[in-house]
Design brief:
It is a single chain. The protein has one domain: Rossmann fold (3-Layer(aba) Sandwich), CATH 3.40.50.300. It starts with a strand and ends in an 11-residue tail after the last helix. The chain is globular, with a radius of gyration of 19 Å. β4 and β5 form a beta hairpin. α2 runs parallel beside α4, α3 crosses α4 and α5 runs parallel beside α6. By secondary structure, it is of the alpha/beta class. The structure holds adenosine-5'-triphosphate. It is a peripheral membrane protein. It is found in: Cell inner membrane. Belongs to the ABC transporter superfamily.
Length: 250
């Protein structure tokens, strides 16, 4: 079981220079591919392309397949970046049931809430009654309610305190262990490498490198591209200014 992307290229209509790509990668079931890059690198457009939801002015070329058949957006589910994707007028359980309509099997909201480490009582709450961490878990529960085996998770730790962010990453590890294939888009490289198997690095829409997580170690000497090393060192510095010493720069 694998999701394969070959030479994905996104170009503004009437322009010759691509905004993004060409990008190629392969994601196996039970694996996680991380996608990182600076702001405006093209990460959200990649997610839009997978779901055939690109803005009308952007053209898509390349091949996207699931087990060698054309990729259907219905095979995947997106956990969006913004908690504003939740319906402010519906309690959590009702929203879970809506998403479960795509799922052939009956979905038990309480079981699903437990899966994302929320109490059954959370099902009766409206979005404005949820903390940031609870809201992100509800977004993940909606994503899982679809029953999709392939998940695109966009910035799950944004704005969360470190403990809750770590718990969410742990949840993604569990999903991976259950056989889900996960594309994880995040600026939080330090946490991303706790769950990812490989990391694709974008700079201004270009795939500068796809690196195994083992390369993100020390000062990043195992990373091939200077942009990847700079990204890694900047993240380490933000997390813990004492981790980089002048002597590591070789
Ligand atoms: N509808 C659009 N029309 C034209 N250009 C667009 C459109 N949407 C995005 N872009 C451009 O495509 C590039 C990639 O944008 P994208 O939103 O995918 O970046 P990103 O990596 O997700 O950034 P961030 O981390 O800040 O969310 C940017 O230069 C952006 O200005």
């Amino acid at each position: 079981m694998s999701l394969q992307v070959e030479a994905l290229t996104l170009t503004m209509k009437g322009h010759s220079q691509p905004l993004v790509g060409p990008l190629s990668w392969r994601l196996e079931a039970g694996q996680c591919m991380g996608l990182v890059g600076g702001s405006g690198a093209g990460k959200s457009l990649v997610a839009d392309a997978l779901f055939q939801a690109l803005p009308a002015e952007i053209e898509c070329q390349g091949r996207m397949t699931l087990n060698d058949a054309p990729l259907s957006p219905l095979s995947m589910a997106l956990m969006p970046q913004s908690i504003e994707a939740l319906d402010p007028l519906a309690p959590v359980t009702q929203q879970i049931r809506r998403f479960a309509r795509r799922n052939a099997e009956a979905v038990d909201p309480t079981r699903l809430l437990a899966q994302v480490q929320l109490e059954a009582e959370a099902g009766a709450l409206f979005p404005h009654q949820l903390s940031g961490g609870m809201a992100r878990r509800v977004l993940l529960a909606l994503t899982l309610a679809t029953g999709a085996d392939w998940l695109v998770i966009d910035e799950p730790t944004l704005g969360l305190d470190p403990t809750v962010a770590d718990q969410l990453i742990q949840l993604l590890s569990t999903l991976k262990a259950q056989g889900k294939g996960v594309l994880l888009i995040s600026h939080d490289l330090v946490r991303l490498i706790q769950v990812a198997d490989e990391v694709m690095i974008l700079a201004s829409g270009q795939q500068v490198e796809t690196a195994p997580v083992a390369a993100f170690d020390g000062s990043g000497g195992g990373l091939k591209h200077p942009f990847s090393r700079a990204l890694w060192q900047a993240q380490q510095w933000t997390q813990n200014p004492l981790t980089i010493h002048q002597g590591d720069e070789r």
